[in-house]
Design a protein that fits this description.
eight-stranded mixed β-sheet; Rossmann fold; globular; alpha/beta
Length: 166
């Protein structure tokens, strides 16, 4: 099972990432698993997923917006945001919007091209779980939370800017 950094700890990932599928027939192949499904799959096959034994969560690609999830937002246990490449930062904005604008309290997971150098900054935007890239050392990634002691700006993690904390 792939490793996941969640709430500052390394743990086993209980979700299976469904990257692409032609239809709900993929659910018959592995009954009872918990799936992270693409937004379009989740929207298109909601009826088929309702009778499935496992749980479902949604992942958004970097060009999709959090508001596309709709009214079911707060019933989804995990919303994963994809980083197709390290330099694509649009998912940072989606995470912050999920926390601030929509008040989402569930797990926000970074997946895709997630590197150690991003983890501290991702956590400041509202991410609390990180499916790191295969070549990243989970122990080294945990140390990323210790890279900085203070930040000047406000964030999801620290709503008050530094001048208000002194």
């Amino acid at each position: 099972m792939p490793k996941l950094i969640k709430n500052g700890q390394i743990e086993e990932d209980r979700w299976t990432l469904l990257k692409e599928a032609s239809g709900p027939e993929v659910l018959q192949a592995v009954p009872g698993k918990n799936f992270l499904v693409p937004l379009q799959f989740w929207q298109r096959y909601a009826d088929e997923m309702a009778s499935y034994a496992g749980e479902f969560a949604v992942w958004l690609d970097s060009d999709e917006r959090a508001e596309e999830i709709g009214d079911e937002l707060h019933s989804i246990p995990v919303i994963a945001l994809n980083f197709p490449v390290f330099t694509d930062g649009r998912s940072y904005s989606n995470a912050r919007e999920l926390r601030e604008r929509f008040g989402y309290r569930g797990e926000i997971r970074a997946l895709g091209d997630v590197l150690r150098d991003q983890i501290y900054y991702l956590s400041r935007c509202g991410f609390d779980a990180f499916a790191i890239r295969y070549d990243q050392d989970p122990e080294a990634c945990l140390r990323a939370f210790e890279d900085f002691r203070d930040s000047y700006q406000s964030s999801i993690a620290e709503p008050d800017p530094l001048f208000r904390r002194r």
